[in-house]
Amino acid sequence: MRHKDPHPPVERLVLTDVMAALSDPLRIGVVRLLADERERTFGEFDAPVAKSTLSHHLRTLRAAGVTRTREEGTRCYVRLRRADLEARFPGLLDAVLAAAGRDAVGDRIRLQAEG
After folding, report:
1. Nearest to residue 108, comparing CAs of 61, 47, 21, 53?
2. What's the burial of 85, exposed, middle or buried (CB within 10 Å: 0-12/13-18/19+)?
3. What angle do CA 51, 25, 85 make, to 5 degrees?
């Protein structure tokens, strides 16, 4: 389902929504992969779940304001909203990423091997 603007503006990001979105190891894995500031396509993610389940997780991150999705033709591109999260909740994303890296949270999701 396509929405006109499914991305909440920075001033409407809610801490509990962001924390809920970051409460799942698979979603943490997606955020860790997006932390390199690159925009990724849906198909680049290699996750141990069905595509429909991965899609649900990506929608959850988008709805909470953690990611931004851009549609181009039949492709969807996703990017971490690092600057927006930092502006609204200074230090939160860096703390989550550091803890996730230290504790190997989200390690089961990877990027597809390149060609």
Report:
1. 47
2. buried
3. 100
Fold adopted by 12-108: Arc Repressor Mutant, subunit A (1.10.10)
Place of tokens 């943490």: 28
Q: How far apart are CA 59 and CA 42, in angstroms?
A: 11
Q: Quick check: 5 pLDDT over 80?
A: no
Global pTM value: 0.91
Q: pLDDT of 32-89, one tens digit each?
A: 999 999 999 999 999 999 999 999 999 999 999 999 999 999 899 999 999 999 999 9
Are the C-beta atoms of 64 and 18 separated by less than 8 Å? Answer: yes
Instruction: Give me the residue spans of the domains in the chain.
Output: 12-108
Question: Tokens 């492709």 label which residue?
Answer: 75
DSSP type of residue 44: G
Classify strands 67-72 and 110-111 as parallel, antiparallel or unpaired: unpaired
Max mean pLDDT among 5-9, 19-23, 109-113 falls in: 19-23
Dist CA 86 CA 4 (whole Å): 25
